[in-house]
Amino acid sequence: MRSIRSVLTHLGLALSLSAVSLATHADELRIGFQKSSFNLIVLKSRGTLETKLGAGTSVRWVEFPAGPQLLEALNAGSVDFGMTGDTPPIFAQSAGSRLVYVGFEPPKPQASALLIPKNSAIKTLADLKGKRVAIQKGSSSHGFLLRLLDKAGLKWEDIQPQYLAPADARAAFERGAVDAWAIWDPYYAAAEKSGSAKVLLTAEGISPNQTFYLANRDFAKANAPLLNTVFEELTRNSDYIEQHPKDTAHLLSAYVGLDQATFEQVLARRPSYRVSWLDDKTIVEQQRLADRLTQAGLIPKAVTVADIVVRH
């Protein structure tokens, strides 16, 4: 992987070469993550990034309930680096957030699903008309649900979206306050394990359900060498995940609180965590989602995804 410093400089997103060359690591690196940030959770649990950085730069890990909240903090400068699904960066860019895309993982369409209660009368996507559907606003499930409605020939206005954070959405789902729930792992897996939910559809064939790594724009400009070190450690960490799935499931189970067998199932739905620069195909797909969100009136203004991409 080409260094972040060289790519930032090439794109004009970095300080001048002389300024970058004189830059030192920040005293503290603040990483935002979620319960679905499996690569980051394993990196945190193993402590390998802290070992690599040594005493010169401390690492502070900050957990968020979902991507939109994480990116709000990234824009505010409360965290420096983080990972979200595909839709949150589009909402954030449309709102003028100071962030840049710095990497992505392979698609994971099996890791998100539209759940319905076990005894639901809903049989097809068309049956969603008029129904209450729980989603985290601005999250990957927001974009996923829009694409599901497109598949069914329904408009956004044909449903009653219930904007709830994942924990609140699960509570509403289990007490019957919503008719369906668009959600991602590990919440999806937890609902399956509880026996209260069944899958109407996953994102397979509907959305690639991408994972993106993002950084505060100002932090990326001033700390390119540090971000490059983070990516090196994420690459090593993805090797560990792929080579040690049972140990990885144990680490995730210990942190999140679901049993190891459930996380072995979760990991099987995401065969690779390899971190790469954004390629043309991924940027085009992300732009397609951005354009659809604009057409549906779900974001305040149109965006050009490529404008904030750090790429090879």
TrEMBL record:
Keyword hit for Protein biosynthesis: no
Domain Solute-binding protein family 3/N-terminal: 28-259
Pfam families xrefs: NMT1
Location of the protein in the cell: Periplasm
Domain of life, source organism: Bacteria
Main subcellular location of this protein, as a coarse class: periplasm
Functional note: Part of a binding-protein-dependent transport system for aliphatic sulfonates. Putative binding protein.
Family membership noted in the UniProt record: Belongs to the bacterial solute-binding protein SsuA/TauA family.
Protein's recorded name: Putative aliphatic sulfonates-binding protein
Organism: Amantichitinum ursilacus
Encoding gene per record: ssuA_7
